[in-house]
Amino acid sequence: MAQKPKVQAALKAMAELGINEKQVKPVLKRLFKLFDKNWELIEAENYRVLIDAIFDEEENEVVEEKKNCKNYDEEDMEEEPQVHHEASRTSKRLHSSGHESSSQKKKSTNADLESDMEEELPLPHQRERPLKRLRKSHEGQVSPFPNSCNPMLGDTSSVRPKVEKDGLLGTRSPQQLRDITRSPESRAELQQPISPHIGNKNKGKQPVMSKPLAPHGVRFKELVVAEPGIILLPKQNVNTHQLLKPKDEPFTDDMAQDEVPIAAILPGPSSEENPILQDGATVEQNDQEHVASQEKESTTNGIQASYNEGNTNSELATIEEESPSNLEVASSPLGEDGSISVAPNLDALRKTTAWDAGGGTKELLCMQSFSLNGSVSIEHPTVVTAPQVPRLPLSLNGFGECREACGRTASNGFSGVNKEGGLEDSRDLVVVQQCDLTTDDLRAYHDINDITKGAERVTIPWVNEMNSECPLSFFYISRSLVFRDADVNFCLSGIGDGDCCSTCLGDCLSVPARCACACQTGGEFAYTPEGLVKDDFLEECISMTRNPQQHHPLYCKSCPLERVKNDDCLEPCKGHSRRKFIKECWSKCGCVIQCGNRVVQRGINCKLQVFFTSEGKGWGLRTLEDLPKGAFVCEYVGEVLTSKELQERNIQSARSGKRPYPVLLDANWGLKAVLRNEEALCLDATKYGNVARFINHRCLDANLVEIPVEVETPDHCYYHIAFFTTRKVDALEELNWDYGIDFDDHDHPVKVFQCRCGSKFCRNMKRSNRSRSASIAA
Ligand SMILES: C[S@@+](CC[C@H](N)C(=O)[O-])C[C@H]1O[C@@H](n2cnc3c(N)ncnc32)[C@H](O)[C@@H]1O
Prior knowledge:
- It is found in: Chromosome; Nucleus.
- It comes from Prunus avium (Cherry).
- By secondary structure, the protein is α/β, with parallel strands linked by helices.
- It has four domains: about 5-140 and about 160-190, no CATH class; about 195-265, no CATH class; about 290-480, no CATH class; about 535-775, SET domain (Beta-clip-like, Beta Complex), CATH 2.170.270.10.
- It is built from 17 helices and 27 strands.
- Helix 3 (about 40-70) runs antiparallel to helix 4.
- The site of S-adenosylmethionine (SAM) has 17 residues, from strand 18 and strand 24.
């Protein structure tokens, strides 16, 4: 039977949209019935009603299909309510007098149409769904962010392309629609799966839209709006350096570890500025980026603890001293005073009065900053008063190994304590009254297997075969740290061509030509290929130490030691021993790290042990292996102080009765016309030091000699003091060096003590004998 012209026209119009007769006829039949054979309504707006109805039909079929399908995926589950909802809305608009189900479609009152349309309909799943594709294709050109089901965005129906409500399709002519359908983009779109299967990854949380290409080749359909202002791209292997990761980035559980979403963060208010301590102190971070990448922030009980973990490129740290009124951080290892000391956060301590110190216990705050040249600055272990026991920065492990937490304490005076009341890091420290520390506490404080707490390449155990005493607490550092005012600059620009061998390659020691570094030590390197100081070089160093007067001591015009005394009359300089420097290759040299002219900078390499001496000298250091003559043992590490700062500490220690452990860096004093106080430096290992702080004094014939070693700074104001064996030393021999003490000089920074070195050359013994003779004579 020939079709009626109007039916033919409708079918043709739909065909032009890519909708085949089989889809059109049943819908048309229903509309014909619904509109009481009123073709005008059907034909209006280029068959808008028909198109919408076909679309609705298709959507309903999809819904039914899904209901029948037990295995449809999560995305479908998410999409279903929305589709259903929209279909029913359309249906309501169309069906002013009720909704007809598809089961009713065979009840037609129009015989012609009915006969035209009484063809076998394909099963729903066999049908194409051009309109859905068409709509998806079309939606893609409307808005990149239709997102009505994103709970984070609330009701976004206003931005969603509303095909039905806004008559989006209907506002376009069939030609326009045809253009859309036939455009290459649309065809490509049509070849894609209708439902992109990222639903499993998103778990249906975010809508996924099929869109034109977004910048960087990412399809908009792959964009996921996770939060306002944050768009997550699909998981893919990316370089994590490219990650811009918001604090609360909604990572999902199912992400593989090597798969991370790229998060594009739209500008928003910065949430975290410089942390402000509750007591009002701020943490200074000169190098924000550096700190940001290195610093860990943890907040517990409202307290922020900041600590730097891992290496930095810094070479020297600055430590500022507490004011004279501040409490002492560490006391003499001999335990000669009862000052407040620093102990680790140990279970043992928690039960002691240390934890109950309560009202008025002084807290130490340490501010850490990073200078532009990368050096770490531990500024001001400030003492504040707070009701409970604070924590302290723990051991400073030297150049760039500032691992200590800068204990920022809060009003409760407690930081870094985990939920269970446990301590987050066993290396963390608390301030306790030293007199409250039991032997057990101290035993627990110092790892008996390694007093360095891992700061050195080797482990250094401690042992006490004499009594039950333990070494007192101090901060173990493997490299010296500037306390505050010392003028120490590790500037590469400060190293001239004559101070480095930038043209060298490989191992300088194996090259016959004298490089610039060799020239610094008279054209010969100080070291043998075995890493020992050459004999003649060593002997000269020993001689200079033992017989300073024969080597023309240096006298300052204005000695910094005298200057800082603030006496009315400036006393003349008492003289400084002349020294021979070792010059090691360093960062500006072209040689390899394994170069034989780099010994001290590699750190301790022999087996050492801290032990309790039997002669009443307290703790000492010994070797556990035979050491050849000229072997490097360790360097003297401590806080780098100016002569003025040393003077201030001496005044303090005189009051407290504490013995400081300073060593002057005076090898160039007297060579320069007038040294500024900031250039006149010393090392103080009282609070911060390495294993060298346990080396006892021996008059004259010590088995170690200290040799100045230039590594980073050519100006010889700051340098390393390295200990080398003066002879072969047997295993278990105590190591000692001559402090250079004048036992008659009670003004000397190194406080005199009753010497028990046992040397036949003991100067103290001679003095004692002199005194005895004098008293006998009297
Ligand atoms: C740098 S510390 C050496 C380690 C110290 N023995 C200890 O127990 O920590 C210097 C102190 O050790 C003691 N000392 C060093 N050499 C000594 C000696 N020859 N005779 C007596 N006491 C000595 C003195 O108390 C001195 O102030």
